[in-house]
Amino acid sequence: MELRRPRSLLSKHFLLVLFLIALLFRLAAARFPNVVHPDEIFQTEEPAHRLAYGYGVVTWEWREGARSWVFPTFLAGIMRTTDWMGAHSAGYLRGVALILSLISLTTVWFGFAWAKRASGIAAAIIASGCCAIWYQLADFGGRALTEVVATHLL
Question: What does pTM read for this prediction?
């Protein structure tokens, strides 16, 4: 029984270090803004900006009621609470990237948990390490795309 405790403690510390590495990768990717898909702006961030600040572009999906306001409302809350983080839009965009990057860490957790259950601690370390540093997971982790956030929550 005493031999298992240090191993469990070691895996918890390892997982915490992996969370920090994964968060650093995701925040580093968000530091260089670019547009991967226009939906990131026109279907999530722009409606959220309109909810938070009262002005912005309204596309036809929002005028016709074809999209849900749940995710933009969530982002609007983040924008209003984190606009102190920088001048103009830089502050709340950093806040959005930070919160979405934190949500994306669920991928690292589930990679660890599922691999540990299926094949043991060695597989868990490999799987969670891959989830932490995989370039697509790092690049899209802090992006305000509905598909990406739905995958992290799934």
Answer: 0.85
